[in-house]
Amino acid sequence: MSGVVSDTSPLIALHQIGQLGLLGTIFGSVLIPPAVAHEAPGIERPAWLLVRSLEKPLAPPVVGAGLGPGETEAISLAMELHVARVILDDLPARVLAQKLGIPLIGTLGILLAAKRRGLVTAIREPIDTLRAGGFRVATELYERVLTKAGELQ
Length: 153
Description:
Elements: E1 4-6, H1 8-16, H2 21-27, E2 30-32, H3 34-39, E3 49-51, H4 60-63, H5 69-81, E4 85-87, H6 91-99, E5 104-105, H7 107-116, H8 124-132, H9 139-148
Parallel strand pairs: 1-4, 2-3, 4-5
């Protein structure tokens, strides 16, 4: 397995805090299905962010899950390509990916990975900025991520 597929919300979240480039640095390249490209028109696509169409019909377990177009195509593309990871934030999409055995990471996981690799010095402020802008993060998850980052005692 290799490659990474992203849904829309992590792209938008990282773009909002000026950290979209972390995806390219951490993963090299990131694939997005056409629906994700359509859902994120305000994000200028760097060379490492590649639109990849599905070659097979949408996966039946994904179609019946009631997810949005971007999530549906992202999970289906991840299944089709047998990628190493799918980047998702929406809880129903994450639950489905886990049920389907697709390894996943979200925006907070990307920020934590960036901190561990020394790509950013702190993640509390960017996460707080996201939360202030309406990005929903459960308090328990917020505290767990900041503890892992060494930013919460």
